[in-house]
Amino acid sequence: MKKAFFLTAVTIILSSMISFGQTTWKEFSFEEHNFKIDFNQPPIASIDSSTFNEAPLITYYWEAENEDATQENSYYSISVVSYPSDFIHSDSVFDVVEGFINSTQYSLLDDDTFSLLTSTLIEKEGFPGKSFKWKNNSSNIFFENQVYLIENRLFQLTAIAREGYNHNIFIQGFFNSFGLLNISNGNYKIAIAYNERTLSIEFPDTPKVDTKIVDTEHGKVSLEIQSYEPTNKDDNLVYVASETKYPEKIINKNDPYALNTLYANSINQSLSSVGGTIISIADIDYNGNPGKEFRCYYLEGKAIMVYRLFYIDETLYNFGVITLPENEKNKAMNKFFQSFQVIRQ
Fold it and tell me: How does strand 2-3 pair with strand 114-124?
């Protein structure tokens, strides 16, 4: 298994943006199992039995395979299994809960066919969970697993994209439709350490702001993402800016080799995350701080991503736009890039 260590906002933000297809969804309620969720077709139910500490363990599955090749995603599923409350419960010490949730991905972690792109803390109605985004290295197909511990029940959700549709709105739509029935809200809240924003950049309009807690080789870090999707005519499809404050000095910024390695790994991770094809990489500068600008094809050439990276004072700044090939260089993009500043109090 190849694990991604260098954080990229591209993987996270694109999962809720840009789609070229349509589909019809319907809510399905499973009151016996205390949840509801949307599928685009009636799911097929199945049951699997095993043993746990010499006691029976029953897992319930609901799966939908889309044979229609025009659908962006080929597969959706949800499963639920109940464990003994004295073994695991969502009220247990969080490190234990997180370790239990992480263990659901061990078979993928041990398989060289798959690369883990990101793992992120999430929550559902006051209960802990994690999102795991994966890439199949042999087929260039992307999929995401979301895992929640609801009291003593483990819910696992999966969405698999078709090649060329690696990030589309229906993946997040499926996950967002998952809700609990007849279960009181839990007490879990994601502990986010809000760092003072030091990135200043001018969006065409007010951006959406989101903060994620993401696993990296340097521990958990807080990633703030600002994003804006124009609703009116604009030369660009998406504007994104993010900053990641690392808890320690991860490299010596005065070491050109170390700095270039960080940038190269971040760019390669971005390309891997979206199935992109590099067009160019250029050296850039901000107030004496060297950085990189990279351009790549995205969505099999239907779009182009142009991003800039700077590592300044243990903070990684990552900002850019997604545009159409015919708009690869435009005034709105240049204005966005030129407005970038690092603000220190």
Answer: parallel
- Predicted model pTM: 0.75
Beta strands in the chain (DSSP E): 2-3, 26-30, 35-39, 44-52, 55-65, 73-82, 114-124, 127-136, 141-150, 153-161, 179-180, 199-200, 208-216, 219-228, 236-245, 277-286, 289-298, 303-312, 315-323, 341-342
Neighbouring CB atoms inside 10 A of 252's CB total 10
Domain that holds residue 324: 193-342
CA-wise closest residue to 49 among 34, 59, 41: 59
Query: From the CB of residue 113, how many other CB atoms can be counted at a distance below 10 Å?
Result: 13
Helix, strand, coil tally for the chain in percent (to 5): 20, 45, 35
Dihedral Cα 33, 34, 37, 42, nearest 10 deg: 40
Residues 207 and 169 in one domain: no
Split into its structural domains, the chain has a count of 2
Model confidence pLDDT, tens digit, residues 112-148: 999 998 899 999 999 999 999 999 988 878 999 999 9
pLDDT tens-digit series, residues 201-247 = 999 999 999 888 888 777 788 888 999 999 888 999 999 999 988 87
229 CB burial (10 A radius; 0-12, 13-18, 19+): middle
Residue 293 sits in a domain whose CATH number is: 3.40.1000.10
| Inside any domain, residue 9 | no
> Rg of the Cα trace of the chain?
21
* pLDDT value for 195: 67
Contact 129, 101 (CB under 8 A): yes
The pLDDT value recorded for residue 259 is 92
